[in-house]
Each structure stands twice: as structure tokens, then as C-alpha cells.
Amino acid sequence: QVQLVESGGGLVQAGGSLRLSCAASGSILSINRMDWYRQAPGNQRELVAGITSDGSTNYADSVKGRFTISRDNNKNTVYLQMNSLKPEDTAVYSCNAVKTLLGRSWSYWGQGTQVTVSS
To answer: Do residues 98 and 33 lie in contact, with contact meaning Cβ atoms separated by under 8 Å?
Structure first.
């Protein structure tokens, strides 16, 4: 089992910044990617950014150039630095970890953290 705990959400004005953290614990070996998703009321959950075990990253078009995903392997933590925030970035942000071992995959989710951007 993998436990994920997100933190860093809050209320910020448009144009401001927040940094989200996702700390992983438990059976973290063989986690080969971690992603940040978000879901706003009435919307489907969408992938915001992801990072693989070798450091490759990907971003949704809507956040490219504004958000940066990174990881600290010593702390088993993934970060999402969010700059130039917009009201449309308001959502619950959740961390997801994908573990692959012997041809099988497992997906783990954190509890989510609310990000609210005021105009």
C-alpha cells in the first residue's frame, strides 16, 4: 500500500502562487510515475502534470509555462509549483501514484487539497 498526503492548498488572488506537496509513504518502491490531477465542481477530473521515475515531465496545455512539477526522492515528495494562478485554476488538486511491478499496476490517490483563486 502507498499513502499519499497532499498539502499546500489555500486561497490566493489571481496572479499569485502556491506550491503543493504530495508526500508518499508505505510501499513506495516501484512507483514509476506520480501525477497531479484537479477537479472543479461540475467538471471532469483532468491531468495537470506528471513526472516519471526518470524525471520526465508532462503538462496540460492550460498550465504549461505556469506550473512546474518536481520531485525530491530523499523526501519521497512531489511538488507542484503553481505561478500566475487564474480563477479557472480553482479546483481540488489530488496526487496520484502509479506503481508497476511484475506486469501489474496499482493506482493510489491522496485525499486532495483545495485551491481557490480569487479574481
So the answer is: yes
Cell numbers placing 28:
513506495
* Amino acid letter, residue 119: S
**Type of residue numbered 79:** Y
What pairing do the DSSP bridges indicate for beta strands 104-109 and 91-101? antiparallel
Q: Quick: pLDDT tens for 4-25.
A: 999 999 999 999 999 999 999 9
What whole-number distance in Å separates Cα of residue 55 and Cα of residue 116? 28
C-alpha cell at 7: 498539502
Pairing of strands 10-13, 113-118: parallel
Check if the beta carbon of residue 20 is closer than 8 Å to that of residue 9: yes
**What is the pLDDT confidence band of residue 27, given thresholds at 50, 70 and 90?**
confident
Q: How far is CA 69 from CA 42, 78, 103, 118, in A?
A: 26, 7, 27, 23
3-class SS of residue 87: helix
